[in-house]
Amino acid sequence: MFSRSIVGSFRQAAARPAVMARPAVARAVAVRGYSDAAEAKDEKKAEEGQSDEAKKIAELEEKLKESTKEMQYLRADYQTVVRRGQEEKAKAADFAIAKFARALLSTSDVLSQALKHVPQPVDKGTPLADLVTGVELTQKALNQTFNLHGITPMGDLVGEQFDPNNHEAIFQVPAAVAPKRPDGSDRQPGEIIEVQKLGWLIKDRTLRPAEVGVVQME
């Protein structure tokens, strides 16, 4: 009888740890589940945080692009204003020079005509030779002054086509009686055959149109 009670006690003692172990296992599983859920939640928050940062970076990059474009537009506008101001200033200066230069062109014409009508040949050491030399030097100095301010002659226009922007037709000759070209070919309607007064340019604009004779235009 005594032995049975001892055996029963041992059996109960052996059974107790097994019964008590079940709540511990359950708690461990619960803790692990909570930990996994917390980690998942943290990962989700981290992903959301990264997503928010990416959006902010994208917004900042877009604002930077817009600011860069605005700066480029402002710079282009500024350069345009500066260029226009310089152009207007240059035009005003050219206008002032042109007004004075037109008055001097008459002097240049007189000097050219004087040299053209000097009888040839001119004997050296004579008063006429000294006069011709003085006129030539005066004309040379005047032309240098013109060149300094961008004023240049149009040059020999014979053989070129008449341009109403640069030429003024003083007379017209019918094609049938117009002088032929040096190679013997016929001149075309509107072709310049004679320059009566030299034309002048101030930079890329006409200061004074050339007075010319042309083949009659159809």
UniProtKB/TrEMBL annotation:
Pfam families: GrpE. InterPro entries: GrpE, GrpE_CC, GrpE_head. Transmembrane segments: none annotated. Gene3D superfamilies: 3.90.20.20, Head domain of nucleotide exchange factor GrpE. Residues 38-55 have a biased composition (Basic and acidic residues). It comes from the Eukaryota. Keywords: Chaperone. This is GrpE protein homolog, mitochondrial.
